[in-house]
């Protein structure tokens, strides 16, 4: 009898505790509505870490997911929301999109948190130039991703000889060996941002970092119209020969799933793909292998997910809590391990990360010291949206056989010129 009573008491005490917890979140009256495009399994799991941390601070999380890799669809929804006077509290943004919203004067100033927590001392310069506008912090960077990676099924790799390709010819030889195994050599999702993610890898590998800088960062018409760029498009066509028939429109995580289940050999994708391996309980070095896209070791094409806040007088406290939670060092470790990215802070130890994460951290550091840490085109860190979309159109049209390599080069020069 006493036992039953004690259990009931404990249970109701638990309920009371739960209810109090819920009430304190409500009592604070603080909530954030967060617009983002993290809908893949690993992405949602990573975001959940932030959501839970914030709820511990008494801030209620209102989720506003808009599916679509690289945020293309999310950006359309965001524009519609802002235009109708209903901006979300916070939004996931990339590079030039942060700057564009900042220019319109609609973003909240995060200086009070950034100064108190000394973000300036730990967030790399390359990120600060997007997270700050006019000398003020307007976004909180949550991670550093990079796009020049290959994710490969370990069994298929071993069967193909297990030698990491370091140049184009070796890469093609590896894809051929995977074809002989009867699997799809290249796991591929035919969406403009994915085509362009692959394209930027091929640009960097074919022309090297100086060419990448001229063509992609400086948008130099000579580089865009060069024979090197023609070779890049020829190589894109070559890659087309290694994808399956159903690639068109496929989401990136479904392509990753093919590498995970062994029906495809490898994927050229940013390190968010690693999140999907981890989410499927696969281990780096055992089930899958990561290396830099052949010919790009030493260089890093990066993108960083940032959260910007829309200026809302009633939500200032909750927004500051969100910004602070994002830069919290232990959160940076917990989140980035799940997401596949590396921390946005330079003072985070690497030991809790898997071998790919540790390599990612080391590579970013080295590339940054050597001047070869360069913005990703497909993920908004090389050029504003208009120019990026001009690349998307030509790259996708060429990959799908609408242009040959010479026509693509000509179209690219004109399209980029027109969009600048
Ligand atoms: C990138 C973003 C990543 C990941 C990926 C796929 O642009 O930075 O965090 O979400 O898109 O959607």
Automatic annotation (TrEMBL):
UniProt keyword 4Fe-4S, yes or no: no
Gene Ontology, cellular component aspect: periplasmic space
Keywords: Periplasm, Signal, Sugar transport, Transport
Pfam families, sorted: SBP_bac_1
InterPro entries: Bact_solute-bd_prot1 (IPR050490), SBP (IPR006059)
Localization per Swiss-Prot or TrEMBL: Periplasm
Transmembrane segments: none
Top-rank lineage group of the source organism: Bacteria
Family: Belongs to the bacterial solute-binding protein 1 family.
Entry function: Part of a binding-protein-dependent transport system for a sugar.
Protein name (record): Probable sugar-binding periplasmic protein
